[in-house]
Write a structure and sequence with these properties.
mainly alpha; single chain; 8 helices
Length: 193
């Protein structure tokens, strides 16, 4: 998948028709779905993993999973939401597989000494531990809250952009973000933050 230089999004062909054609064996139809949704999927992945290369890989993985499971899609009119959920789940699986760790060069062996960046090893380890707790709290959010939260605060998208990507009303985005912040505040407070 080549992000950035891609053909124009298909106009005038709805998802139901494309999925029907794809299920009938027309691979080009799925390619049109990819073109139509790859920006949204990439935004979700980038918002979650915060790394362009990993986001590109996860975008590809999302569409492979979607293609292989397309016959299990129950409401073809909701393909956009379905593929967004696949992307979100793929990203969360990827994050869970990461073990919080600092490169050995970042943490000095002697307490009180400083790294090249002017941060002591103890401070760097504490920051990494705090970051891991926050990321774990975000990962523990229900999927619909987590996706909205990641798109807003990690990808820095507007409420309107999030509503467009998730194909939900603006008020739904506002409600999900409010609830996500509320849950995170409570969970981080309970965890001693």
């Amino acid at each position: 998948m080549q992000l950035g230089s891609r053909p124009e999004k298909p106009q005038g062909v709805d998802d139901v028709e494309l999925i029907t054609r794809c299920l009938a064996g027309e691979k080009e139809a799925f390619g049109q779905l990819v073109v139509k949704y790859q920006d949204s999927v990439y935004a979700i992945c980038l918002a979650t993993v915060m790394n362009q290369e990993d986001a590109k890989d996860l975008t590809q993985e999302t569409f492979i999973k979607a293609y292989l499971a397309l016959d299990s899609l129950q409401d073809v009119a909701r393909f956009g939401r379905w593929v967004a959920k696949i992307a979100s789940n793929a990203c969360m699986d990827w994050l869970r597989a990461l073990k919080p760790q600092l490169p050995l060069t970042e943490v000095s062996k002697e307490p009180g000494t400083e790294t090249a960046k002017g941060v002591s090893g103890v401070e760097a380890a504490a920051a990494a531990e705090e970051n891991a707790r926050v990321m774990a709290a975000i990962a523990a959010l229900p999927e619909h809250y987590r996706t909205a939260f990641s798109l807003r605060y990690m990808a820095e998208l507007s409420y309107a952009e999030i509503a467009d990507i998730l194909d939900v009303p603006l008020t739904t985005v506002e409600g999900r973000l409010f609830k996500a912040r509320e849950i995170l505040r409570k969970n981080l407070k309970d965890a001693g933050q």
